[in-house]
Amino acid sequence: MDQCEPTESYCPAPAAPARVVAGPPYADCLECGKPTEYGVRTPGVVLCPVCEWQEAQRTACSG
Fold first, then answer.
1. What is each CA distance from 49 to 5, 8, 39, 63, in whole angstroms?
2. Per-domain residue ranges for the chain?
3. pLDDT digits (tens, 9 = 90+) for 4-27
């Protein structure tokens, strides 16, 4: 997993899909099962806004 670039002021959320597909239908969160903002055909890990924020907090840069 890439670390923050020295010129960036934040780390991107690793759980955010690289290519977002619009819904409806919306995909279910892989953590809690609630609907997400992403269409069902969005590749990669899809999380609801709450779980996405929690994942970003867990993996945030410490420096």
1. 25, 23, 14, 24
2. 14-63
3. 555 555 555 555 556 778 778 989
